[in-house]
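Why does residue order matter? Because the sequence determines the fold. Keep that principle in mind as you read this record.
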Amino acid sequence: MALPPEKASELKQIIRNQLSQMNVHGKIRDILSESVREELGKNSQGLSEADLIQALQRRGIVDDVMKELKFLTEVQDKEATTSSKPATHFVDKEPAELKKTKIDPTRRNLYLQVLGGRAFLEHLQEPLPLPGQVCATFTLYLHFRNQRFRSKPAACACEPDLQDGFLLEVHKDSLGDGSRMADATTLLSICDPVHLVLIKTDTSSEKTLIASHYLEWRSVLSSPDGKMSISVELLGVGTESKVPVGVLNLKLEIYPHLTQPLSKEIVDTQLILERQKTAEKERLYLIYAKQWWREYLQIRPSHNTRLVKIFAQDENSVNHPVCSYVRPLRAGRLLDTPRQAARFVNVLGYERAAMVGGGSKQEQWCTLLSFLCRGKGDCEDHATLLCSLLLGFGLDAYVCVGTKARRVPHTWVMAHGTSGDVVFWESLTGHR
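Structure:
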């Protein structure tokens, strides 16, 4: 392990002070003089270095010194964990085994371990950063049932050293079940995936969305020991949604372990049934949307030229009904009023979705997690977040799609007041 020059000097000074405190130099002189008298008394040959080291070991001097200096490793580990250096500084150290602590034995938990990445070929030719050098980093964000987590930054590389663990609470939301430990059947009925978002932060603190993936975790329910190691292939976003960007090595573990794990056939059957049910819902919604659009065009022929959004693509280029991007979001004590919510959304940066080639802009409605992790997005991202926050305050809010000056497509928020008045919110500026 390479140490910076100032750390090496500090370490040498600590060792020197410890040797002086233990009077090791005096003990070595006494042992050397005694050994010289004994050995030279028997023969006239000089003592070798190995003879002197053996003499020190026989008298326990080496063991005493190493025992006293053992605290250096502990101090070093403590400094590494409590370091206040910026996250973009690369630390050259061996990955340590992740410890699992603070687990409530009365609640069921999913422990998700990230054990590094591989095949990030975009960084194949990138040189290894020197210790203390500012470099681009990867950060992994997780979201699971109103729980959000973030990993420690890791230097961008072909095999990034993403090493972290996340303890996710798993319990049923229905009344009376919140404090009850979930059994295997209850866990199988929880269909929420773990949303993984990988963000790259360059040396100028500019953030880029690299991948967004939904992890199906319930396969671990069929594992006899409650553990499972998997490799997750991450795909790109936007126009690169079909291109692999890398692989994450994950380990899933259920705590406390299930007394009776489910069979693999039961878990697979449940997942197939859920996919079929979701596909049927999407089919019925598509039939309804087509019928509504036909009736809308029959009202007035000019409706055909209006901007009406029924479906929108997310960062993975998957079509979703636009209503699925908005849901009541309660900020609690973080935001006291709707005006504060508008100001918060306004602070987030504005950036149009990137596209390859020319033409009109690419429309992409990011999920809330991807938008918040990146800290910037298009006008649609700002509008959906503001509308969700206003719904959390109890307002009757809607996302509006239309045009602004020079017929440029734009998105904003409309809210119905209690007295029947209508208020328009510009999510990019916070103005009403």
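The first strand starts at residue 109 and ends at 118.
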